[in-house]
């Protein structure tokens, strides 16, 4: 049962939903949305009955959910953009809706480019602000940041940590850029503009750490090229190959404009 939940009737609603989930024997998704008092909310559970492969990929589900809750609380404490945590307890959390994941703005009926640019800039500001407060997200892919038309908010803090090291912060940025490169393919103007927002706002030691990742990323490229031949349509591998060149472009551009 939830431990916190100031909203009238919300805890009873959550208890009902948890029971339904248990009865579905793991067939129901561990993240679901529902409407309560006219508002769209999201419920996330630590599902321990996932298939073995997913359990191995996700690690300890209960610990991941505790990190998620800690991340959401950290964001709220520092006035940073993340959905409000409305209720939480062992193995469960409920948060406010934060709009569409950024991945949706780039797929299907994609959003106009100026909206994509605004959403990406807002996401980069949010990430840099989290880093400025001393935390790391852990895996800010496009699908882990939501956009409501005016503000980007980080979600899915399962790998959150604070205090974080500059290299963890740099890795957040690289993971985000990698996710964007899966769509953009190379350092397009949209990509460069977004990347530069983080360079402008993030703590300087995190920028130095990002530069120090470049040799490793370049070192991996020949092996990745071989892998790409075996898996020609794999977007993740293709984006990893493009990553060091794209990152160097934005880091050099930033240095040339006096950004250090
Ligand atoms: N507050 C929210 N507002 C809008 N959408 C949300 C919200 N919370 C979750 N979602 C949706 O649910 C999806 C899954 O949520 P979340 O990323 O927290 O779970 P997850 O199981 O850790 O996901 P994954 O491991 O696939 O990234 C999100 O990508 C998003 O589409
Ligand atoms: Mg996620």
Tell me about this structure.
With 260 residues, the protein is α+β, with helices and mostly antiparallel strands. It folds into two domains: 10-96, Phosphorylase Kinase, domain 1 (2-Layer Sandwich), CATH 3.30.200; 100-259, Orthogonal Bundle (Transferase(Phosphotransferase), domain 1), CATH 1.10.510. It has helices at residues 10-23, 52-58, 61-77, 102-105, 113-132, 166-184, 189-201, 204-230, 235-259, and strands at 31-36, 39-45, 85-89, 92-96, 100-101, 145-147, 152-154. Helix 5 (113-132) packs parallel to helix 7 (189-201). The protein is globular. The structure holds adenosine-5'-triphosphate and magnesium ion. Magnesium ion (MG) binds at residues 143-144, 156.
Short summary:
This protein has 260 residues and is of the alpha+beta class. The protein has helices at residues 10-23, 52-58, 61-77, 102-105, 113-132, 166-184, 189-201, 204-230, 235-259; strands at residues 31-36, 39-45, 85-89, 92-96, 100-101, 145-147, 152-154.
Calculate Rg over CA atoms: 19 Å
Which ranges are low-confidence, i.e. pLDDT below 50, for 5 or more consecutive residues? Answer: none
Shape: globular
What sequence of helices (H) and strands (E) makes up the elements? HEEHHEEEHHEEHHHH
Question: How confident overall, as mean pLDDT?
Answer: 92
Enumerate how many helices there are, as a single number: 9
CATH class of the largest domain: Mainly Alpha
Task: Give the N-to-C terminal Cα separation.
Answer: 51 Å
Kindly report the name of the CATH homologous superfamily of the largest domain: Transferase(Phosphotransferase) domain 1
Question: Helix amount, in percent?
Answer: 55-70%
What characterizes the major β-sheet?
4 strands, antiparallel
What's the CATH topology label of the largest domain?
Answer: Transferase(Phosphotransferase), domain 1
Based on the structure given, which CATH architecture of the largest domain is correct? Orthogonal Bundle
Instruction: Work out the strand percent.
Output: 5-15%
Estimate nothing, just give the exact number of structural domains.
2
Overall SS class: alpha+beta
Unique ligands = adenosine-5'-triphosphate, magnesium ion
Spatial sequence of strands, sheet with the most strands: 1-2-4-3
Number of strands: 7
